[in-house]
Design goal:
It contains seven helices and six strands. By secondary structure, the protein is of the alpha/beta class. The protein has one domain. A six-stranded parallel sheet has the order 2-1-5-3-6-4, with helices on both faces. Helix 2 links the parallel strand 1 and strand 2. It is globular, with a radius of gyration of 17 Å. The N and C termini lie far apart (36 Å).
Length: 224
């Protein structure tokens, strides 16, 4: 299975004018999970073969380089996955083609509060549409970066918004933050998949995230 985030990472490395230096850049890492070689979790990845949904990650400038990024975990589990580097004025033509593909029903996953002007676009659940595959769009970056992408991407302005409620997040067993925007991308995806009846995918992504989180924290502790 192809991981679009890793493919995007390789594309960006190929055209970069200088090497991106992430934290722990001297560490000998697995090229797939980006964890330390001795903590590699690749053998434990199980693809969600029964998943009827697709995912698209729109990633802030250097997000695909970061070993701590959890967006690529989603692409490990969901077979139908896409990733693009965000650009406000010149979006990738393949992204625009994807958003307009009649095969898909694209939905932006983003927390919207009651004061937002986008309330008319908000949905709480993705209802099945005959002949269309739900395409969940995740804005992958820090909270500030995600807000910037949400506000400054006119090609996303007409799409429905799946706003995850604080109540649903409070039931998520791995939640350690007080607000939705402090969750990692993979954690939000786990909630979205579970709420929209992709239970196998949600379980496998949750398990993959736990393995990643534990290995990542272990590698950080060893560097202290």
């Amino acid at each position: 299975m192809s991981n679009s985030v890793l493919a995007l990472r390789q594309q960006q490395i190929a055209v970069a004018r200088r090497e991106y230096k992430a934290r722990g850049s001297r560490l000998n890492r697995c090229e797939a999970c980006l964890l330390a070689q001795h903590l590699c979790i690749c053998d434990g990845v199980t693809v969600a073969d029964t998943c009827q949904s697709a995912v698209c990650l729109i990633m802030y400038h250097n997000e695909s380089f970061k070993p701590s990024n959890t967006g690529r975990l989603i692409a490990d589990i969901i077979p139908d996955n896409y990733a693009f580097r965000w650009d406000r004025t010149e979006p990738n033509p393949k992204l625009l083609e994807l958003l307009n593909n009649p095969r898909y029903f694209p939905v932006i996953v983003f927390p919207v509060d009651d004061r937002e002007s986008e309330l008319a676009r908000v949905i709480t659940k993705v209802e099945g549409i005959e002949g269309k595959t739900p395409l969940y769009i995740f804005l992958d970056g820090t909270w500030r970066e995600a807000k910037k992408m949400f506000r400054k991407s006119p090609y996303l302005d007409e799409l429905p918004i799946l706003s995850i409620s604080p109540e649903s997040l409070s039931d998520y067993q791995l939640r350690v933050a007080a607000h939705a925007h402090q969750l990692g991308t993979a954690e939000v995806a786990c909630v979205v998949l579970e709420q929209n009846n992709e239970l196998d995918a949600a379980q496998k992504l949750t398990s993959h995230f736990i393995d990643f989180r534990d290995a990542y924290l272990k590698s950080k502790r060893k560097k202290l």
